[in-house]
Write a structure and sequence with these properties.
This protein has 129 residues and is mainly alpha-helical. It has three helices and no strands. About 4% of the residues have low confidence.
């Protein structure tokens, strides 16, 4: 039985089954490499398509730090401000991904931003907009 704890486990399993005719449904397995967003180290928010709705000082747009302080350490005002920036960033990244097909952050970074927003909204009873 396959235990898919991680993508690496799955990749190893699939690579091991490539060409193994004794396994049902096996054959050549082609794995697509993950799409990495471009290096945005020197970019400015205003340089990006879809940035019209994003504050230039939003820390979650380009190369976001996804190491967040524990929710218990935040005051309500700080949590509300962080949630505003996160909502704005999530909408921006949704547009870049789904409309322009040109993401500027990794899926993992997006997931962490989205999870943090959900956590803040739940912990501080912030309205989802």
């Amino acid at each position: 039985m396959l235990n898919t704890r991680s993508l690496d486990d799955l990749r190893s399993y699939l690579e091991g089954s490539a060409g193994d005719a004794s396994r049902p449904g096996s054959g050549e397995v082609v794995l697509c490499p993950p799409v990495e967003p471009p290096d945005m180290a020197d970019a400015e928010v205003t340089d990006l398509d879809g940035a019209e709705e994003v504050s230039e000082d939003n820390p979650y747009v380009l190369d976001p730090d996804t190491e967040f302080a524990p929710v218990e350490e935040l005051g309500e005002d700080e949590a509300a401000e962080q949630a505003v920036h996160l909502r704005e960033a999530v909408r921006f990244h949704d547009h870049r991904y789904y409309v322009l097909n040109d993401p500027v952050i990794s899926d993992r970074a997006y997931d962490r931003l989205f999870d943090r927003l959900e956590t803040l909204e739940s912990a501080f009873d912030l309205a989802t907009e």
